[in-house]
Amino acid sequence: MLTVKDVSVSYQKLRVVFDVSLHVTPGEVVVVVGRNGAGKTTLFRTIGGFLKKDKGSIQFKGQEIGNLWAYEVALMGLKYIQQDKQVFSDLTVREHLELGSYATKDRNWEPVLDHFPKLRTLMDRKGGNLSGGEKQMLLIAMALLGKPSLVLMDEPTEGLAPHVVNEMKDSIKRIRTETTLMIIEQNLPLTAEVADRVYAMKEGKIVAEIVDKKEIKDLAFEKYL
Amino acid sequence: MNFLKRIPGPFLLLVLVIVARYLFPNKMTFIVEIMMFSIYIMGNDILYGYMGMVSFGQPFYLGVGAYTAALYLAYLGHDPLVAMLLAIVSGAVVALILGPIYIRLRGDYFALINAATCAIGLFLVEKPLLKITRGDDGLWYRTRMQPEWFFDLRQPAQFFWFAVIILAIVLFLYRWLDRSALGAAFRGIKVNEGKMKFLGYNTFALRWIGYGFACILAALSGSLYAINFGFVNPSITEPGRAAEALVATLLGGAGTVYGAFFGTVAFLGIKDLVSTFFTRWEFAVGVLTMLVCFFLSKGVWGFLNELIEKKKRKASPV
Predict the structure, then answer these.
(1) Cβ-based contacts under 8 A for chains A and B
(2) Do A86 and B192 touch (CB under 8 A)?
(3) How many domains does chain A divide into?
(4) At A87, which CATH number?
(5) What digits encode the pLDDT tens for the residues B108-147?
(6) Closest chain A residue to B193 measured between Cα atoms?
């Protein structure tokens, strides 16, 4: 589904991602772990079309997407949910979903709201008045409209209360039955619970790929961080 | 008062305009100016209020519409309606040509490129195009204008009704825009453009569309000025008047359906009232703008709207 090959990315002259190669196959949950500054977000932003690569190729569903604009990548069915958890403060939850529907022509909100039933009760609340967890739910809900093939989530549980993290974990387990997920996550126990495969990143490079489920459960990837 | 809720807001506003015209018959010219200017401000509000793009060059687009209509009426034809349609087309053409270049610029650069365009526009009509625009003397063509089959737009009383119809069309379209996904997308761009891209929106195209609407509304407003006065001179495109659009937008309440109208009423109202006592009416506008900035950040309409919402919440405490 997604094949990243020898991708390098720089901020002006400073290279931060070096010859990264990875792949994602349909139906899996791939988690990318690494310390702050390892290049995870830069890699996701590049795959999502928000940054341009220096070299290498990014293929999604057999098509090169490395030179496409972010909105074109999103319309192809690859959604990148940023780390910032920012929503539109002046728009209501309903308006957020309408925006998502308008772009993707998907007006059926029911499957998405089934994943996040709480949003049904918040329809008329403005984005600026939502909690961090509610904002994250809304962002994922918007991303799921249009039934994307692959959703990239950048630290979806960062800064959330423990009980919200648990809710998010359950949501991820439900969502994975419908779409492929690639997640950046610092919460290692959560990673161990949801990941099918783990890539460890360090100093802009992939330093390990862990495929063994037992190793993932035992947090064996921790030694690469 | 419940029946008022069922009446569309633009309709109420138009009734207000018509009632004012008959309550203050000697203020008809002023009321007509409010209608024409508010269309111009609505254009600026799409740019500034909805999309967060400040422009210091709106008089240029106003001038494009005014001069297109004026040049047609002075040299080519006699029909004011055709002049107005040509002005709308000229606004769209300007947006098509300049849009892809200008909207790549952000923040202060966008504001300044428009200011520069406005200065260039003024220079063009005053110097290189002097022979056809007649420079500071302006173009006079009222006697060349012919009546339409339904209105004689040379007659102020009939032009009033024509302006009411145009304002009605623009207001209803504006309300539709505000409530549509396109309006929400414009607001989305203002708050977080990256998030709009994540949703699959071509934000470049959206900003181009918004800029196009602003150009077209300014040109339409300019053509109404040209038809109403039967005269156009370069003062309409003075760069120094760029602040007028921003101040009126701010006074009314940026990014709201009726803010542009109420901002226009406040701005022109102060200008009309204060200038009868002091020459420098700008002083009063300046003080009021400061007060709005500090105490009424949502403008006059935003403030009224909040009061209405509070009243609604009190009436139905769920």
Answers:
(1) 66
(2) yes
(3) 1
(4) 3.40.50.300
(5) 899 999 999 999 999 999 999 999 999 889 999 988 999 8
(6) A88
